[in-house]
């Protein structure tokens, strides 16, 4: 007996899947959570993976959706337009939990969801979207990065959302009592009512 309190989800696939989405939802609201800043992968023009950290803004288990905010001039936009193939990675050291998600990515520039996301964004976050050159553009000197602080739209014209529709979740939980690894896949990726099927894997 180690006296270690074992989580209820440990030997239960349904509870493990619920824990995945609980952690993602917590990540969207708590900046102290490791799930707040996942690594998002896209494919570049050569079909090679490109990774970057992004702030997770929303997680909706019902729609299997994660939402991120970005600048529509950034390199990842053209990459997503070319290929929707995406992957997301998170590792939370305190809990020993790693999530690896496969997702179909899309960019939304207009519409209710984009307006709501912009309306909810803080004025501090909006400053990024007022940078005059495209993110990733070369500059002579770091001080040459300019912002249009008088932009009538406060930068809304450069703002967009990146949606990740998750179709595979791989869970890894490192624990003294024994590691756990599971994969969850959809029975029909395209169906609105698609159901997750989980299987245990050798960690
Ligand atoms: C902690 C952290 C949070 C970040 N959040 C975002 C974000 O929410 N959206 C974003 O576009 N870039 C974010 N970035 C910057 C990206 O990692 C990346 O450098 C930038 O988006 C350019 O990527 P791209 O050239 O592949 O488009 C963040 C970086 C860090 C370190």
Automatic annotation (TrEMBL):
Pfam families (alphabetical): Pyridox_oxase_2
Q: A GO molecular-function term, please?
A: pyridoxamine phosphate oxidase activity
- Domain of life per record: Bacteria
UniProt cofactor(s): FMN
Example GO biological process = pyridoxine biosynthetic process
Domain Pyridoxamine 5'-phosphate oxidase Alr4036 family FMN-binding: from-to ranges: 22-105
Q: Which UniProt keywords apply?
A: Flavoprotein, FMN, Oxidoreductase
Q: What is this protein called?
A: Pyridoxamine 5'-phosphate oxidase
- Origin organism is Stappia indica
């Amino acid at each position: 007996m180690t006296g270690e309190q074992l989580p209820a989800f440990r030997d239960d696939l349904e509870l493990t899947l619920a824990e995945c989405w609980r952690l993602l939802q917590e990540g969207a609201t708590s900046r102290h959570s490791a799930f707040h800043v996942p690594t998002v992968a896209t494919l570049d023009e050569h079909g090679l993976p490109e990774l970057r950290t992004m702030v997770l803004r929303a997680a909706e288990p019902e729609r299997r959706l994660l939402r991120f905010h970005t600048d529509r001039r950034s390199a990842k936009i053209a990459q997503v337009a070319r290929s929707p193939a995406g992957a997301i990675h998170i590792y939370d050291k305190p809990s020993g939990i790693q999530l690896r998600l496969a997702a179909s990515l899309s960019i939304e520039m207009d519409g209710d969801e984009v307006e709501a996301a912009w309306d909810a964004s803080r004025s501090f976050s909006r400053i990024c979207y007022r940078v005059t050159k495209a993110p990733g553009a070369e500059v002579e000197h770091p001080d040459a990065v300019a912002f249009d602080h008088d932009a009538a739209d406060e930068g809304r014209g450069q703002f967009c959302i990146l949606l990740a529709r998750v179709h595979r979740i791989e869970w890894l939980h490192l624990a003294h009592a024994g590691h756990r690894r599971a994969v969850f896949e959809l029975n029909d990726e395209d169906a609105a009512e698609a159901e997750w099927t989980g299987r245990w894997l050798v960690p």
